[in-house]
Amino acid sequence: MKLEILGSGCANCQKLMALTEEVVRELGVTGAELVKVEDFPKIMAYGVMSTPALAIDGKLVMSGKVPSKAEVSSLITTALAAQG
Predict the structure, then answer these.
(1) Dihedral angle computed from the Cα positions of residues 10, 57, 1 and 49, in that order, rounded to the nearest 10 degrees
(2) Which of 6, 15, 28, 72 is deepest in the core (most CB within 10 A)?
(3) Which of 13, 23, 32, 54 is catalytic?
(4) Is 13 an active-site residue?
(5) Residue 84's pLDDT band (cuts 50, 70, 90)
(6) Which CATH number characterizes residue 22's domain?
(7) What DSSP designation does 7 have?
């Protein structure tokens, strides 16, 4: 599973990265790859209009806010379930 944190590296982007790392640890997701994407052409390729944003396995799942821990957990759990 590839989790991409899209943003400029601002405080909110850092919060989303820390929150995502915490949820991955708590869920015991093995083999998760967390990547910070700060390259604006790459961010724009996802159609992101405001950051921070989160993409899971190449699919944009959230943008424009720092989600709650429960929201991040739900997004990752849903993506895991879709993988089978």
Answers:
(1) 10
(2) 6
(3) 13
(4) yes
(5) confident
(6) 3.40.30.10
(7) S
Cis peptide bond N-terminal to 67, omega within 30: no
Q: What is the pLDDT of residues 20-73, one digit of tens each?
A: 999 999 999 998 999 999 999 999 999 999 999 999 999 999 999 999 999 999
Q: Which one of the listed residues 2, 8, 10, 22 is annotated catalytic?
A: 10
Which residues, 6 or more positions from 74, have their beta carbon under 8 angstroms from its beta carbon? none
Which residues constitute the domain of residue 19? Answer: 2-83
pLDDT at res. 57: 96
Identity at 68, one-letter amino acid code: S
How many structural domains are present in the chain?
A: 1
